[in-house]
Amino acid sequence: MHLRAAKKLRGEVSIYDPIGYDREGNEVTLMDVLGSEQDEIPEGLVAREEVESLRQDLP
């Protein structure tokens, strides 16, 4: 009976389980990846526009 109950939960993953390691060797969890700042996208667009502007100004 226990095996049948465990089979139902086999595909579930906890958001706190480690999914890998970062450059410093720290564990990365799904919570770290899913939790993101809402300002990241606009900051990325501004940075991209600044890079394009600098490339146009260079000879």
Structural class category: mainly alpha
Q: Radius of gyration, rounded?
A: 21 Å
Percent of residues in helices comes to 40-55%
Q: Count every beta strand, where a strand is a DSSP E run of 2 or more residues.
A: 2
In terms of DSSP E residues, the strand content is 5-15%
Helical segment tally?
3
| Separation, N- and C-terminal Cα atoms | 73 Å
Major β-sheet annotation: 2 strands, antiparallel
> What string, H for helix and E for strand, traces the elements in order?
HEEHH
- Strand ordering within the main sheet: 1-2
Shape: elongated
Please tell me the overall pLDDT: 80
Low-confidence stretches: none
User: What is the count of distinct domains?
Assistant: 1
